[in-house]
């Protein structure tokens, strides 16, 4: 079974920054063993499949039959030494931990699905009535309160504003058979600074909609975490769609940063050229969703 075609933007917080009782749950999850980052998508997929094969099926992964949460679930762990930092940025102390928050993320996705999907699809996909599912999913989202999920995800493509977060030169590429991965890691302080600058430039150049809105939402999301956290952009399962030639030709991060610089300099020609490169590269992968 292939890994889901999903890309991720993740935050890893210092374990010491979590408050009780969540801290004890996260510590226990770390002691049980972290999820292999190469297999994170498959781990989440298997968790969901187990929830659907249970008797009775669970509406959300990570729940028991009564809808009660079953612990913090899986976590990813990162050593601060694996995070490139600018001189003024601090990451740690370690370990840095990213709870996968699958139940909360699934509830938020379900709310969106119930609002967008056609009636026959909703009926076929749900183990219970639409109204009951909407009520339960909404309640789980409300439980998050002021807490933010540590993972954002995108299917079939990477939202271009996400590339603002990273340093284009710090890309990590793993190309071993069955262990392919593309990711960037960055200190939270650097990520916030880059997003704030890009948002200001985009707002002045193209207004409040489109990329500007995504940058604003991303900045607000990052502000909800510990300032000494790390941020990771991971192509996840999308790398399965890419050949080695694709990876060699991928200049997405460089192009997005160049677009921000060109917008600041009012260089419309450079903006257009870079955007066309991005469109040509990513449209091939995004189009596969329509044939799936």
Describe this entry's structure for a reader.
This protein has helices at residues 22-32, 40-53, 102-116, 119-125, 130-143, 188-206, 211-222, 244-249, 252-264, 268-286, and strands spanning 6-14, 75-78, 96-99, 151-155, 172-176, 179-187, 230-234. The chain is an alpha+beta fold and 292 residues long. Helix 3 crosses helix 5 (130-143), helix 6 runs antiparallel to helix 7 (211-222) and helix 9 runs antiparallel to helix 10. The chain is globular. The model has no long low-confidence stretch (mean pLDDT 88).
Per-chain topology:
Blueprint: E1 6-14, H1 22-32, H2 40-53, E2 75-78, E3 96-99, H3 102-116, H4 119-125, H5 130-143, E4 151-155, E5 172-176, E6 179-187, H6 188-206, H7 211-222, E7 230-234, H8 244-249, H9 252-264, H10 268-286
Antiparallel strand pairs: 1-3, 1-4, 1-7, 2-3, 5-6, 6-7
């Amino acid at each position: 079974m292939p890994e889901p075609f999903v890309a991720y933007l993740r935050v890893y917080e210092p374990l010491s920054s979590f408050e009780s009782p969540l801290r004890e749950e996260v510590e226990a999850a770390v002691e049980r063993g972290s999820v292999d980052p190469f297999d994170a998508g498959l781990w989440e997929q298997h968790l969901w499949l187990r929830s659907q094969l249970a008797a009775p099926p669970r509406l959300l992964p990570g729940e028991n039959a009564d809808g009660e949460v079953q612990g913090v679930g899986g976590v990813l762990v990162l050593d601060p030494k694996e995070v490139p930092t600018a001189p003024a940025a601090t990451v740690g102390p370690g370990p840095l931990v990213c709870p996968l928050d699958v139940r909360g993320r699934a509830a938020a996705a379900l709310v969106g699905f119930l609002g967008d999907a056609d009636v026959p699809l909703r009926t076929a996909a749900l183990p219970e009535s639409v109204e009951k599912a909407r009520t339960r999913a909404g309640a789980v989202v409300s439980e998050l309160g002021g807490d933010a999920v540590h993972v954002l995800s995108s299917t079939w493509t990477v939202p271009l504003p996400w590339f603002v977060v990273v340093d284009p030169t710090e890309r990590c590429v793993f190309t071993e058979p069955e262990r392919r991965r593309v990711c960037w890691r960055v200190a939270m302080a650097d990520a916030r600074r880059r997003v704030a600058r890009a948002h200001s430039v985009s707002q002045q150049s193209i207004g409040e909609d489109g990329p500007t809105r995504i940058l604003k939402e991303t900045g607000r999301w990052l502000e909800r975490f510990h300032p000494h956290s790390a941020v990771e952009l991971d192509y996840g399962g999308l790398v399965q769609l890419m050949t080695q030639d694709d990876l060699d030709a991928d200049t997405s991060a460089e192009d997005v940063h160049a677009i921000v610089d060109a917008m600041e300099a009012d260089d419309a020609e450079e903006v257009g050229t870079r955007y066309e490169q991005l469109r040509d590269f990513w449209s091939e992968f995004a189009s596969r969703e329509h044939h799936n």
